[in-house]
Amino acid sequence: MVLEDIDSAFSGRDRSTEKGFQSSITISGLLNALDGVVASEGRIIFMTTNHPEKLDAALIRPGRVDVKEYLGWATPYQIQQMFLRFYGGSEEMADEFVSAISSSGRPVSTAFLQGIFISNKEKPEGALIEARKLASKELGGVN
After folding, report:
1. How many alpha carbons lie under 13 Å from residue 124 in its C-beta half-sphere?
2. What is the span of the domain harbouring residue 28?
């Protein structure tokens, strides 16, 4: 199970305006679902956040959260491997893509790279053009 952006689950946002969705989840209810009487065994739960400092200590205590992993900026190896997995093909073009992205001097996230790949489905040349634009600072944002 994936609980995306867990830091915003209890922030008091008015979710009733988001496509008719209303959340009645409380921190107590979530904790009981995770490891209370109604918790099921043999499952793995992933929680993501951009703001770990906002998480309630009860939610991330040892025994509830066994592993914390920081996912930082994409490395050249990750950039190359993502390119090859998305498009296949030659390592030469993947290396050219890595070089263009890296020459911008800006760190990029894997989500940003995925956006480039999705907007250039089946067009690795288009992804390479976007990478070159990034290097020449023609693109607006990085993330």
Report:
1. 18
2. 2-54
